[in-house]
Amino acid sequence: MSGMLWMHDQDWRPFIADMITYGQHARAHANGLDEAGFKADLKTQHAVARCVEIIGEAAKHVPEAVRERAPDTPWRDIIGARNVLAHAYARVDPAILWALVNRELAVMERSLSALLDKAPKPDAGSDSR
């Protein structure tokens, strides 16, 4: 695998790491709840929604060439979810948040962890965010 395929003006690794971290946070917020409990817990819904919003914002900063290396990650859906949460918040369906936190985020985390594992390690001090 050529290192040139991974190189970009801005280091994308911190954004991937944020996506993984906030996916874990969202799942931790909902841990121990069933769907009915989640739908009844506005505070948890808000916490999960904020995590998903951050994940989507981070995803926007990952270059397309890097996104192509994680095809199991639904990049457009993630960014779209962020846009809905930020701009059309009144349309947020708790059932969709529940599905995200219980199915999609774990898949995303595995895909992105594998992407980071395959990527060349950055030079020291290259976190340019």
From TrEMBL:
The keyword Hydrolase applies. Keywords: Hydrolase, Nuclease, Nucleotide-binding, Phosphoprotein, Toxin-antitoxin system. Transmembrane segments: none annotated. GO terms for cellular component: toxin-antitoxin complex. Pfam families: HepT-like. One of its GO terms (molecular function) is RNA nuclease activity. InterPro entries: HepT-like, HepT_RNase_toxin. This is DUF86 domain-containing protein. It comes from Alkalicaulis satelles.
